[in-house]
Amino acid sequence: MTHPENDSARDLAAIAQLIAHYNFVTDKNDFVGWAECFTADGVFNGVYDSFSARAEVDRFASEAHKIMKTIPNLGTLSPTS
What we know:
A hairpin with a 4-residue loop joins β1 and β2. This protein has a two-stranded antiparallel ribbon with strand order 1-2. It starts with a helix and ends in an 11-residue tail after the last helix. It is elongated. The chain contains three helices and two strands, in the order ααββα. It has one domain. The chain is mainly α.
């Protein structure tokens, strides 16, 4: 017999793990890893544009690089993608 509280605990742990992974890959400028945090049809609605996360990861990375060059401290990061 399954217990709903166990399912909730597993769901919360999976969500926490996804958030941690999202933050880790974002900090590393790992755009492919970032896109993998979304479902296949997931969309990222950013300040400047919207991106179909997985399908448009290259376009997102290109735009992110442009933004990083214009914002103090972000432009000094070394993107991995």
